Amino acid sequence: MSATPPGPIGDPLFGSGRRYAADPFSFLLACADSYGDVVRFDLGPRETYLLTNPADVERVLVADADRYRKPQFGDDAMDALLGNGLLMSEGDTWQRQRKLANPSFHNRRIGALAGTMVEHTESQIADWADGEVVDVQLEIARLTVKIIVSAMFGADITDAEVKTVQEKLEPLGARFEPDPRRFLIPNWVPTRENREFDAAIDTLESVIDGIVERRRGTERDPGVDPAGPEGVAVRGPAGDGDGALPMDLLSVLLRARDRGEQTDQNLRDELVTMLLAGHDTTALALTYAFYLLSRHPEARARVEEEADAATGGGRTADDPPTAADAREMRYTERVLTESMRLYPPVYALFREPKLDVKLGGYRIPDGSALMLSQWVIHRSPRWYDDPETFDPDRWKPDRRRGRPRFAYFPFGGGPRHCIGKAFSLLEAKLILAAVCSRYRLDYEGPDLSLRGSLTMHPDHPVPMRIRER
Asked: Cα–Cα–Cα angle for 243, 227, 147, nearest 5°?
């Protein structure tokens, strides 16, 4: 195999960690521009290899997926937060949990949730006033929390609980912002950051415990899915009977626990994972979409046309837009795709080879960290003309033809692709339809700047003035 890949030379203690922490997005783009398909650098004590060629990403995520695992970074903060849920589990545990969760994300069930998504959206935006300025990131996150709890937990979440969740996202997110000094301080040291992180987890768990207890107390029939239309009866442990809708995820997990197939810790890990991952990425995707539409009024006008078609035609509150209506919103889908290309909520995935592998002509040693960065590949001029330009029509079939499959991968890929992809895309289109049919949102903040954590967040509020159409 070939010699070590090229890359920036860091300092002896932190490697390139301080440069990465100062601005991970500029650092990664500079590495790709300077060094090519495979770039080696150190992030603290860990050898890291950035892959910038979609063909190598596809090998890691799809063709040779069994040769790689989720990495361990020598930091148990991720374990403390997400435990052994779907995002972090491996091997037989992951396969068992994924199989258990799959029916709750079946296309038929997702389509039946359109009414729930629209109902929550209409309720949220009913309080908006013409001329008011809102932080759209907070507004949409509040909405997506309510939707994911209703759809996947089969319960409602109170406004106070939503506020609590949002307040605790800040210390949780701060714990995962890049900081090379963190490797020098064990998690058990009672620093202010560690104390706030631990307290945030405790509070989040208490919110989830409350939701579970309310759900157990109000479940009228263990074979009924409250999120299904008119409480459709569910046959079998996951609703696999003909014509039956699968149950929500919480019902599936509670039944599995009652059968002795899940522990309380399994239940906790999956619910925390679903609550956080199930609302944050969709809220971010919509935040960036609204920002870009504000900057491109011609694109916004086309989205408004589709929104009017989806929500108009004499519809009433008892006849909300459906999944079929959302499928007709083809330009809106291109807008969302282009938004996630420019601003992927998950800006990098990590894998670790189980043995020495060869990628891009270089030997990658087992146990090293592989970084597969959506941010880098989505903005590469190798795969996109004018990559910094917002151009939804680049996703028309004739223009996307010939582009490598993994030149775009906001939901990952392979056997571990995001289980909530269909749910998130339907939710995003229906929220856009409801909002854009009534309002225009005009961004009134500074030039957008970003910060990296588990996901890519704006580094400041996202103020938008509401204008009635």
From this structure: 135
